[in-house]
Amino acid sequence: MKGGNNELVSSANYSRMVLENIIKFMDDIDAISWSLIVRELRQRLNLSQERLAQQLGVSFQTVNRWETGKVNPSPMATQLIKKTLIDLGKDGQDLLDQYLILMEMGDSYAGGTRRSFVK
């Protein structure tokens, strides 16, 4: 019986480890996706990171962190990015589609929902 309990604990620990790795993977996908959207948007607007930061009302360091995938834009910043993509019209439609996919993922996973599965 004791051996069976150890196997159960090991199985539970393994399941937790797998779930934590899935969560990290999803976070990495979010960061990479936002990084690509912000960088491509900036390049299509032919702006430096400083100029895009001014346009969005954030610091240069913030735009730099978005582009390097260190952090994702805040909810307010994502709305400004969305407006900028809409203003690009047809030229920004592909990025807007990617944005909408990210936002849909965010509705499912944002706000620590993913992490709440792992206690």
UniProtKB/TrEMBL annotation:
GO terms for molecular function: DNA binding. Signal peptide: none annotated. Residues 38-74 form the HTH cro/C1-type domain. Pfam families: HTH_3. InterPro entries: Cro/C1-type_HTH, Lambda_DNA-bd_dom_sf. PROSITE patterns: HTH_CROC1. CDD domains: HTH_XRE (cd00093). Coiled coil: none annotated. It comes from the Bacteria. This is Transcriptional regulator. It comes from Dactylococcopsis salina (strain PCC 8305).
